[in-house]
Amino acid sequence: MDVRHLTFELSVSPQITPADVPALKELGFRSIICNRPDGEAGDQPLFGEIENAAKECGMNIHYLPAESGKVTDEQGQEFGALLAISPKPVLAYCRTGMRSSTMWALAQAGRLPLAKIIEAAKSAGYDLTGVVRRIANGGRTPVEVAEAEHDIVIIGGGAAGIATASSLLSRVPDLDIAIIDPADVHYYQPGWTLVGGGAFNINNTVRTMGSLIPRGTHWIKAAVAAFEPDRNAVILEGCRVVRYKQLIVCPGLKLDWHAIEGLPETLGQNGVTSNYQYHLAPYTWELVRALRSGRALFTQPPMPIKCAGAPQKAMYLSSDHWRRTNVLDKIDVQFFNAGAALFGVADYVPALMEYVKAYDIQLKFQHTLTAIDGPARTATFIRTGADGSKETVKESFDMIHVVPPQKAPDFIRVSPLADSAGWVNIDPATMRHKAYANIHALGDAGNSPNAKTAAAARAQAPVVVHNVLAALGKMKGEARYNGYGSCPLTVERGKIVLAEFAYGGKLAPSFPKWLLDGTRPSRLAWLLKERILPPLYWEGMLKGREWMVKPELTDVGSSA
């Protein structure tokens, strides 16, 4: 038997035989639903045979047959009704399991998010791309679909999306562009680390989305449900279809808070905080100021994450405050890193280690946070040994700064655009999708091996803009991205190690070494982070001003 689990209550399988029924009973199944009509194949047992075997085993069984490729909306509803009344767990079967999976998906439409339905079926080996519109439409076949069409559709109104739209319009002002994003507000996330360190006002990190969408751009305030790249279409929740000539995908990534047991229930209380949340960054500063003695833990999950230096920035700024207030010697500061190194680019590690020693921070590598008990003030880690062995480690805390695991958004991970790890599958130089020539991606959701930072998105935007316009016949040549990223590592209030690097960890400084040596802590780098980068973000990057990020071009010609 080939039993595949969709949920705790339901599994599906290809055709079963009467001899399989006792084994299903042994596996714990209490009900069977047959979705295959009798007579489809000569070697197919009749439903009556399966029914008799089920009754002998004391199992419930139902017959809800559907023709291959012709599952109706009504059958989906009836499947849901049968599932509701049947003793659990249930096994549903047809020839391959596809019809059973389809019926379940239609029955769950409106109850579970579309991405979770598609992902569960995909994990079981079933591709529901063909019925994604029906799922998005509440399990019903769309009768009348209102469609929109634009030359360029951008998924995501974050830093990457708005910068790209603005850069496109700065070159070709009459372009037909739409941005799809359901959010009401836009955040300057790089500022949250400084908020958590008491050096920045949280109110200066947020603006309304409407104030930032470039004039002349259509804002579709909706969530994306799925992609149909073979039809040049994006499906929105509610089954609205938006078509495109060129698609740019930059929705950011997903913070997976639920991957750490107990974390969602205790965030923002019991000394548990994270600068990765807008409303929690002020709580970080509250905890830091209140702590006069005890144990402070800082965590970093497995890569990739956005701004790989952010976990330790919080630690350095906190330690600096405790040093300035003469309580650092009473606080046990520990850094639990799921990785094996302090920072991915070795040139910056010596300067960081000077601060690790000065603050007397204990480094705990190969430790992955798996659970938090807030009321008990206890964190659970899995430590991986040099030989690959794993052990569980519990640590007490008075405060803990948590960085959650991160992954691509659900609707990206289950889409045809994703690679095996769930990220948009793009060429790392051109940012063009490897299978769909009219799709590009930038920012955090792509699988290019660069650091996921706002600085990287700022450098990627002109590359994508040029290549999209070239595809539309409005530019010539091909732009290429070199992997540039920047991570201003705030090692103390007033000093920063400005890490700038490209693909392969190659140093890529923006300033001459005599002016600013990024491998050493610098007051100038702090002023850059605190005073220059915020206006550069709001009035430069988001307005399409490409200062210092002109891309490399090959086969350059004049614009069309």
UniProtKB/TrEMBL annotation:
UniProt keyword annotations, A-Z: Transferase
Domain Rhodanese: start-end pairs: 88-130
Keyword Cell membrane belongs to the record: no
Gene3D superfamilies: FAD/NAD(P)-binding domain, Protein tyrosine phosphatase superfamily
Matching InterPro entries: BLH_phosphatase-like, FAD/NAD-bd_sf, Prot-tyrosine_phosphatase-like, Rhodanese-like_dom, Sulphide_quinone_reductase
Single Gene Ontology MF annotation: transferase activity
The keyword Transferase belongs to this UniProt entry's keyword annotation: yes
NCBIfam families attached to this UniProt entry: TIGR01244 family sulfur transferase
Name of the protein in its database record: TIGR01244 family sulfur transferase
Origin species: Keguizhuia sedimenti
Lineage of source species: Bacteria, Pseudomonadati, Pseudomonadota, Betaproteobacteria, Burkholderiales
